[in-house]
């Protein structure tokens, strides 16, 4: 497994009473956290997601949660620390901000800061703080920029009143940008995908990119199944368009290559082996629905007997065209894996995945099954594997909360096998929070110990 990995996490005084020290074997693709309800599994995943990949959504899941500190140890030797300031220090910092800032004490920014408390976010290396930022400073910078732009004034409710008629960047997005800049500067960026327990609920999709300088806060609620289908369709269209351009270039290049004698150095045996590999790849792509069915012009021909006369053209043709399939190879492997898993898990119902430029559909007995008519368990399963295969960058971290929801025991028992295969293929590191012994199945070696954190450290 390559890329930046999470080696260890420590949380102090979670819910004011729980402290954990959890180490991960970065040589293993999957780690399982299991504990009774109320012990903070989901909350720890929320904080880990925020610390590694701050977004407007996950900051809302963290602020206001009672905990003293959360520390994440990375494989590059650095540590990310999120700690909540005590009330006295937070109040002192707010007084300092008010002393140097035109921000009104009754402004929404100060009200929000007092409600959620103040936090320090830092990157440490070799026991020293490399960079740090306080949430109160981010709030100060944000509201100062708004007031300087004439958007807030001294009206405590000015931001709310102007929200519908003035373009502005939400505070959560502003905070996200600042924290991501810090992570990037320290070489601690890590793609994270959190597959939550509420995965089949409608999701918020940002609208199309607004004009430069205009921040559009509206969101579109969309079924995650519809979103998955659209995403797969978009990837298929992008890959097939690249393939079409590559084929066009090959057609344009072929006459010149033939006349210049390029690519004509193969003997009959070498050509036949190369052509077999190319033809087999074309057939696989056709069967997956990525390219149209075509005839193999060598089928039924005794190539060996005519190669002395036709060999230069044939080997030149192969040289020009065999790399045209390169744009389709990545999407093919992911579609193949997705289809293999879905077909295997739906063998009893006979549903099979079929792909096209529109996306993915399920077919049984020659009839298309609308995705929104799937059972709850089928929807959960579909969304989990879509996210794992299509919706996270290679070498990323995937956090999965309660994968057992609505799944039959047999599906639970095979879940980790599929997850491990996907993680190994894409270089992912997965952390799974579960109550289910059936999810764990025979993978007891994936369970991580929740050691007690030594508060004296």
How many whole angstroms does the radius of gyration measure? 28 Å
Which stretches are low in confidence, meaning pLDDT under 50 for 5 or more residues running?
152-167, 209-217
Strand order of the largest sheet: 7-6-5-4-1-2-16
Strand content: 15-25%
What is the tally of beta strands? 16
Described by its quaternary structure, the protein is single chain
Structural class: alpha+beta
Helix content: 40-55%
Overall pLDDT? 86
Distance between the termini: 30 Å
SSE series: EEEHHEEHHEEHHHEEEHHHHEEEHEHEHE
Shape: elongated
Total number of helices: 14
Largest sheet: 7 strands, antiparallel
Describe this entry's structure for a reader.
The chain has helices spanning 41-52, 56-60, 87-100, 108-116, 135-148, 158-162, 171-185, 224-260, 268-287, 303-321, 326-345, 376-390, 409-426, 437-440, and strands at 6-14, 18-23, 30-33, 69-74, 78-84, 119-125, 128-134, 192-195, 203-205, 220-222, 352-356, 359-364, 367-369, 397-401, 429-433, 451-452. The protein is α+β, with helices and mostly antiparallel strands and 457 residues long. Among the domains are: 77-187, no CATH class; 228-327, no CATH class. The strands form 4 sheets. A 7-stranded antiparallel sheet has the order 7-6-5-4-1-2-16. Strands 3-15-14-8 form a 4-stranded parallel sheet, with helices on both faces. Strands 11-12-13 form a 3-stranded antiparallel sheet. β14, α13 (409-426) and β15 form a beta-alpha-beta unit. The longest helix has 37 residues, at 224-260. The protein starts with 5 loop residues before the first strand and ends in a 5-residue tail after the last strand.
């Amino acid at each position: 497994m390559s890329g930046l990995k999470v080696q260890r996490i420590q949380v102090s005084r979670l819910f004011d009473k729980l402290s954990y020290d959890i180490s991960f074997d970065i040589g293993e693709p999957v780690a399982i956290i299991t504990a009774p309800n109320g012990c903070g599994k989901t909350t720890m995943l929320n904080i880990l997601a925020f610390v590694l990949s701050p977004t407007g959504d996950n900051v809302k899941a963290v602020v206001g949660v009672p905990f003293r500190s959360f520390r994440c140890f990375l494989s590059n030797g650095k540590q990310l620390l999120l700690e909540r300031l005590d009330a006295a220090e937070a109040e002192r910092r707010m007084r300092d901000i008010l002393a140097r800032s035109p921000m009104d004490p009754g402004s929404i920014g100060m009200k929000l800061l007092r409600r959620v408390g103040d936090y320090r976010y830092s990157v440490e290396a070799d026991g020293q703080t490399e960079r740090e930022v306080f949430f109160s400073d981010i709030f100060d910078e944000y509201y100062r920029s708004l007031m300087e732009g004439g958007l807030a004034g001294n009206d405590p409710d000015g931001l709310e009143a102007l929200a519908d008629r003035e373009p502005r960047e939400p505070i959560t997005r502003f905070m996200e940008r600042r924290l991501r800049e810090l992570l990037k500067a320290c070489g601690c960026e890590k793609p994270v995908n959190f597959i939550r327990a509420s995965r089949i609920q409608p999701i918020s999709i940002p609208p199309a990119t607004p004009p430069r300088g205009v921040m559009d806060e509206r969101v579109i609620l969309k079924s995650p199944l519809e979103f998955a289908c659209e995403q797969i369709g978009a990837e298929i269209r992008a890959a097939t368009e690249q393939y079409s351009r590559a084929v066009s270039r090959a057609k344009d290049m072929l006459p010149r290559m033939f006349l210049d004698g390029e690519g004509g150095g193969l003997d009959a045996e070498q050509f036949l082996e190369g052509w077999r590999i190319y033809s087999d790849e074309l057939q696989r792509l056709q069967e997956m629905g990525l390219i149209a069915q075509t005839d193999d012009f060598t089928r039924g021909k005794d190539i060996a007997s005519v190669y002395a006369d036709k060999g230069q053209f044939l080997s030149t043709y192969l040289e020009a065209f065999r790399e045209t399939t390169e744009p389709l190879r990545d999407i093919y492997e992911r579609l193949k894996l997705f289809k293999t898993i879905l077909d295997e898990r739906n063998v009893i119902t006979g549903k099979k995945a079929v792909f096209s430029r529109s996306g993915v559909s399920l077919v049984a007995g020659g009839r298309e099954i609308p995705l929104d008519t799937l059972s709850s368990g089928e929807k959960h399963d579909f969304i989990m594997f879509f996210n794992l295969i299509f919706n996270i960058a290679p070498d990323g971290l995937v956090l999965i909360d309660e994968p057992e929801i609505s799944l039959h025991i047999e599906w639970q028992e095979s879940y980790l096998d599929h997850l491990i295969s996907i993680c190994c293929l894409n270089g992912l590191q997965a952390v799974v929070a579960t109550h289910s012994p059936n999810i764990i199945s025979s993978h007891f070696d994936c369970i991580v110990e929740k050691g007690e954190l030594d508060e004296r450290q």
